[in-house]
UniProtKB/TrEMBL annotation:
This is DNA-binding transcriptional regulator, LysR family. It holds the Pfam family LysR_substrate. The keyword Metal-binding does not apply. It comes from Paenacidovorax caeni. Keywords: DNA-binding, Transcription, Transcription regulation.
Amino acid sequence: MLHLTLRQLEIFTAVAHSGSTVAAAPVVALSQSATSAALQQLESGLGTPLFERAGRGLVLNDAGRALLPQALALLEQARAIEQAFGAQGAGLPVRLRVAASTTIGSYVLPRVLAALARSHPQVSVDLHIGNTREVAEAVQVLQADLGLIEGASHWPGLETAPWLRDELVLVAAPDDPLAQAARQRPLGVVALRGARWLLREQGSGTREMVEHALLPRLHQLASAATLGSSEAIAHCVAQGLGISCLSRVLVQPLLDSGALVLLPTVLPRMWRHFSLLQRAGRQPSPALTAFVQACREHG
C-alpha cells in the first residue's frame, strides 16, 4: 500500500521552490492550512521530516534534497502520461506550458503559435515571457514543458538544442553623433568604448551575448542605463539616449521606419542561436513534439 500521492509530491515541490507553505498555497490552489497538512502527511508517510524552519520560511534538509529530484521526475512522468493520452484520444484538448525569453516570445513565437493552431487545433499553449534565467528556472522546476531562450544554458539538469540563428547589431538614433561619425568611416574600438550603452539586466540572454561578443574587444561597456526590456532599450535609443546592441529580429521594424540606423564598425558581425530548452532525458509528448515541429518549420 502506497503512503504518498502525486498530489503530495506536487505540494512538496511547490513548497521547496517557494520557500514556505504560505507562498506555495496559491501555486497548488489550496489554503495555507491545507498545504501544510498535506506536507505533514507526506512527511508522516515517509517517516522523516523534509524541511527545516529558517525564520518564517522552510529550507530543504538532507532528506528533502534527496527527494526533490525524484519527485520532479515522477511528476514529469505523470504529466507526460496525461499529455500523451490527451493528444491521441478523440481530439481531447491538451494544454502546453511554454516559457520564452522576451525577444522570442514577442517577435518569433506568434507565427509559430498561429501555425500550431492550424495544424493541431486541440493543442493550446500557455506562454510565459521572461528573461533567459527565468525561463530556465521555470523549465527546471517543471513550471514549463519547454523553454525557448537566447544563447546558452548554464543550468544543471537541462539540455538545449539549437533552433534559429539571430544576428546582433549595433544601433543608434539617426542624429546620434556616433551615427553621424559612422557615415564617414566605420566606428573603431575607441569610439565604441566611450559610447553611452543601454543594456539589458543581468540574467538576460541578450546581455550575456552582448558582453561575450563585445567585452573581449572593448574591455568595458559604459552603461548609461539598464532596462528590463529590449523593446524599451530600442525606443530609448531612438530617442537619442545612447546606443545598444540588439537582435536584428527586434529592431528591424525600427530600421525600416528610419527610427534607428545600423552603426558600421570595425568589429566582425555577431551571431547567436535561439535554443530549445528542456529537462535532460525528457520524453516529449505528441503535443510537445508537434509544438517543436512548428517551431522548426515556422520560426
